[in-house]
Amino acid sequence: LKMSWLWLYLPLHLLMATCLCHSIKAPTTSSQQSFKSNLFNFYHSLLLADGKETTIHLLKDIPKRYYFVLEEGRALAPFSITVTPCDVPIEWSILVYKPPPGKAAPGDHDTQEVSKSHKASSMVSTLFNYKGNSVETYMGMSSHSALYLLEFLSTERDTHITVYLTTDTTSGHLYPELPGDPRIDVIGIGHTTVTLAWKHSPSVLQHSEGIQYCLLVNEKHNYKSLCAAETAIRSSGMKLPPTVALSLSPYLLEPQQVMILSNSELSIINKVSSGEVRQVCMGTKNTYTVPNLSPSTQYYFDVFIVNLLTNASAAYTGTFARTLEEPEPKVTELKDGKVIHVVLDGKKQKFYSLQYQARHKKIHFTFQLCRGQIRVHITRNGKTVASENLSGLRYFSLKGKLLDTYSVQLRSTEESNSSVKVLASPHFHKPLFPLLPESLKIKSFSKLRTCRSVTIAWLGTQEESKYCVYRKRIEEDQIWRELQSADRCSGPESRHKSEKVLCKYFYDLNLQRAVTTETIKGLEAGTLYLFDVYLFGPSGIPVRYHSKVVKTRKKC
């Protein structure tokens, strides 16, 4: 080669032309053919940016090449390359092209050609190659100027990767640092919780601002990078915003996403076909208890240390754990004609089991929902005969054989406390609960409101029953709490005597006319009142109508 070291600063197409003109003749030897092929690869490459993370899209079985040049004039030129596969395993390699030192010695023409051929084959060498889906970093050092080629190939399917090249290894890192031991420890396992701990990243200890930990929980497998996790979520059919777990700024969520923000922790729950994928960012805390998991289920946990300013991240070594099995619920025996009041704690005890052995062919189950939301599941000798969400007062009349065993399982469907009254009795047994009207709503008449009175109405039945009306003065900010916390099974005994308005009996054989009205007087102007009506059956067990809030007129 008869050219100076200035070739390193020529545009690539001029460099290639110069090399091909001065160094390559007809490919009479295999070494010359190999060298010409490598130069062709350099010519069809893109320049890789220095100090910037580059996203590269790969088509299946089609290699993609990038090049970079190390500057002349530095005694030692350090550089590092980090490649992050975002889906399937890939193959990648680093090749280096170095010009031969010195010039060719004069002499016999044949001797020069052999010397050139030998130098051409030695000028291109492979520094590094890798195949897999792990995040891999190559750190190198060059004592003279050189041209480097990176080649990437995906043999499984179309995919994308990120590549980060830097020749400035002294001014900090784009990626947060991992500790010497990057494992995640499982320090506690419950029926619905798993507690994790991990060692602090040096980046958190040095630069706490803009650095935080993010946790990914799923039921499929561990992920080796954050972009691999996001790619997997997208492939499940979801539209996932970029770095969804990394931004604390509000954005629009998809219908299958739920965002929960509490105690400075951002949780994203993605509903995907393979189960839930949760993303939680918890600041710089290095312990976390994952709540609301399903019993007897294996979960995979990945922790990422994230630089919020650059969106760059590093992955701890993922782990997995299986939650404990749900303990067998305590079984309570149901007895004929005896009411059982069941209270379920939505956070601790979500299930309650009852058992009843039939002494008659026809059996009558009665459920009165007092508070919250409960689902009932009834089986006879192991086979399901009824399953539904309870609402108000619900009857189930079932026909079977003598000594059939009925199992009733009650399950709270919300985290707040729920309660229900349960009664089992033979079908011909006199019912303890009163006959109910078509609706338990209380109606008020706006046109009949005055500053001192309110007129309300409610439906009755064909059976003569007792109805008692109660009122309570409330404030605006108490309405929601009063309506949500009302115990629909509690009777007037829980009310203050001053709240009682009246009690009356009525019925009508014609259901179209089984309605009664009542005008409550002696009220204050412009005031909110909560009205309740209690219905009493033959046994004295009350049923509470839905509370009604009415405001008297301010001016009359």
UniProtKB/TrEMBL annotation:
InterPro entries: FN3_dom, FN3_sf, Ig-like_fold, NDNF, NDNF_C, NDNF_Fn(III)_1, NDNF_N. Keywords: Glycoprotein, Neurogenesis, Repeat, Secreted, Signal. GO terms for biological process: nervous system development. Residues 1-21 form the signal peptide. Residues 176-313, 434-542 form the Fibronectin type-III domain. Pfam families: NDNF, NDNF_C, NDNF_N. Its main location: secreted. The keyword S-adenosyl-L-methionine does not apply. Secretory protein that plays a role in various cellular processes. Acts as a chemorepellent acting on gonadotropin-releasing hormone (GnRH) expressing neurons regulating their migration to the hypothalamus. Also promotes neuron migration, growth and survival as well as neurite outgrowth and is involved in the development of the olfactory system. May also act through the regulation of growth factors activity and downstream signaling. Also regulates extracellular matrix assembly and cell adhesiveness. This is Protein NDNF. It comes from Molothrus ater.
